[in-house]
Amino acid sequence: MQMEAIIKEQAQRPPLYLDCIHCGLCLSSCPTYRVLGSEMDSPRGRIYLMRAFDEGRAKITDSFVEHMFRCLDCRACETACPSGVHFGHMMEEMRGTIVEERPAPWIARIVLKHVFPYPWRFHLASRMLQLYRASGIQSFVRSSGLLHRLAPRMARAEALMPDIEFERGVTLDTHYRAEGRKQGTVAFFTGCVMNSMMGPINRASVRLLTAAGFDVMVPGEQICCGALANHAGLRDTAKGMARTNIAAFPVQKLDAIIINAAGCGAMLKEYPLLMEGAAEFSSKVKDITEFLASTRIFERLKNPLDQRVGYDDPCHLIHGQGIKSEPRKLLKAIPGIQFVEIEGADQCCGSAGIYNITQNELSMEILDRKMEKIQKAEIDVLATGNPGCIFQFRYGAKKFGMKLEVVHPVELLARSLGDSNEHH
Amino acid sequence: MNKEVIGKLRRILPSAAVVEDETELLVYECDGLPLFKNRPDLVVFPRTTEQVAQVVRLANEYRIPFLPRGAGTGLSGGALAVEGGIVIELQRMNRILSIDIENRIAVVQPGVVNLHISQAAAPYGLYYAPDPSSQMSCSIGGNVAENSGGPHCLKYGMTTNHILAIEMVTARGEIIRLGNPAGEPIGLDLVGVIVGSEGTFGIVTEITVRLLPKPQAVKTLLAAFHSVEECSQTVSDVIAAGIVPSALEFVDAKTIEAVEASVYKAGYPLDAVAALLIEVDGFREGLEETSNAIVEICRRNRAYDVRVAKDDEERAKLWLGRKGAFGAMGRLAPDMITMDAVIPRTRLPEVLVAIDRMSERYGLGVANVFHAGDGNLHPLILFDSRYQDQVEKIFGMSEEIMKLCVDVGGSLSGEHGIGYEKKDFMDLVFTEADLNTMMRVKQVFNPDGLLNPAKIFPSRRGCTEIGKHTTTSTAEIGKKVEAILLGSPQKVQH
What we know:
Largest sheet of chain A: 5 strands, mixed
Strand order of the largest sheet of chain A: 1-3-2-4-5
Structural class of chain A: alpha/beta
Distance between the termini of chain A: 38 Å
Largest sheet of chain B: 7 strands, antiparallel
Radius of gyration of chain A: 21 Å
Distance between the termini of chain B: 16 Å
Oligomer: heterodimer
CATH class of the largest domain in chain A: Alpha Beta
Strand order of the largest sheet of chain B: 15-12-14-13-17-18-16
Number of helices of chain A: 25
CATH architecture of the largest domain in chain B: 2-Layer Sandwich
CATH architecture of the largest domain in chain A: 3-Layer(aba) Sandwich
Number of strands of chain A: 9
Shape of chain A: globular
Helix content of chain A: 40-55%
CATH class of the largest domain in chain B: Alpha Beta
Number of domains of chain A: 4
Helix content of chain B: 25-40%
Radius of gyration of chain B: 23 Å
Strand content of chain A: 5-15%
């Protein structure tokens, strides 16, 4: 297990930043460097600052904090790095140190510490969002320009608010039966955002898993994976969440633990970097596309879809988990589909968890560049496997006035399933 | 830095494009050669030629040293702010302004990434030939400054052969245009003087590059050997057979170990002592025969494994491995320096053996990965900069390698430039008269010495405490050169 090896090495080994030989091959892979062209907003520059801090040559100043939190944590630099620098892990630790010394912005802190870890609070917050939208207050607020006058940053965050389908996701503590001959048993990690705001995606996921011949259990004690807290440097909050989740899954009875949100998947796979005793749990975690690509689901993709479909790699899938070919392979297997490769599909869309709220201007510039490339591809549907990215692209489509459906790959796969046998 | 200067800069540029914060300046204290560090006083991010010119004029007004910087991937300290001052960072001038398909030229800004030019030209079947290993990150402006090479320069020539015209801000802040986009230069060929002047003659703000049609066919071979001698002999034999490979690259066992452990894993043979990456391109007709002839030469020199890449995907992999090799050294040691000496091809085996012995004597690891076809060595010396004794050994060993290469009839640098790193070794290859002539040319372009000072030429001692590795002989030459420079009537002291 590679992760275990890293941990063991860490105990005796010199600091991780020594892996960086300052060659700069990471530079043009970095979304913030591509926009800003400044060394301190590049992976190499950030590592340089981390090292300088460790060696007592730099202090945690305002600008130091700014550059560390301006990183999208997309980890494209890891894919570019010939020396295998563990950038994401280093960044999370650095942020942890920063947060110990300086508290995170209060709003993010409250949400991350007091809402995400508690499913019912998250649901409540989501419902309030729904109410806000449904009540018509939203259109009043948007059209009045009130927000823009009062608080430009709040206004931009509000504009990003997704058109959410508040349909029921999968129910906790449920056991879904395999269709046909049973191939095994998997557990489903619902994810907080997915299950509250994007229910249909979770339902489609479970449907595909059962169609592929797997029993699907949904452990009731699971909570948020902790990725957002971890990225924000709230290491202890994230550790607590990891502990709860590991306890919630009967790992030994499972063939796999399935997750359909790339950001959560990367986090679940990296629990061993956060704490001890997580290796077995993490070794079972599979992204839904990673898992499905090794099953007999291909035989079940019968209904043709006559559309031009593009795929955008979520950073935490391609860079965080090294998964690139599986989702493409699945989508291409749908009869009638015209699969279009989008230029720069492996580059970040600027969503990055809550980055589009905390670093709105930069996020929007990154998104604009992305949308131009998507426009060029002339597609009807864009598939991507992470909730943050889905929201970001839906906003981007709206902003650019494009007629573009943004979905999770499993939604297209589920539409193509023959002999429908809906689970509701 | 003078508040008045900062205030005036903020009138030329947006406030955020003038960086004075100490933390932010820290990352600009070195380029791709972190062995030498010195923090600049300011970094500015212009977006237009006019802004560059205004910054330069202001620096002249206040007698502040200044220098251009691209992606900071240079390996000779060319973007090191030796005397502090203002770093003019050109990475926000990164637009491809036009691609003229019929005339096969592209006009680009200096911050454009080398590889992005080829990517933009690809739909038209064209590409930009010089391909330094850092091409996925390095800027074309930096390439122009250093006259960068790359594996394929063996057949296609260095950067200077591909630059048709430039727009440049002079050291005193005038905007001039040199060269002729249509090809043959009118009047003096000054573009050739600027390319390779390492950012000491002017700041290039727009570049017209030549694009080439992609070759009709390409063949890439990988040959593995059990000995360095046999591998080196193959290099000589291929060239002697009259074959003109587009690239002929040498990788040793250490390099293979690092690359094969990385994301750029290329399938290099792990049991080889040395391997060659050989490429031929051109018309489809006859290429197979050339490729077969190379295979035959490899076999004759006891290559135990020779394979020809079967498709573009395999070719790309073989090249990515080669290009990621420098960066992969982080797996073997926390720091390295990349030597850049050039030697006659026939002397390869003995020089490599000598370097190997030095490596043992100094107790510092060395990996070899280089352009064997033109004898451009890149011994990568591995060390850990946290230990002062290793840093001192590095200076000793690099000096010894350079002297060795010069002794066998070679030179100091193939493509990385002299910069700050090798300036005190210039007297190993040039006479006083040679240096004097070069310095006089520099005086024409950089009369006040404010633009990128303390580069290329052995210079005044003590301008920075980091130049500890000078020998007596270079110091003496340095003083003589200094005397010439200071004695010159045009020289204005600052």
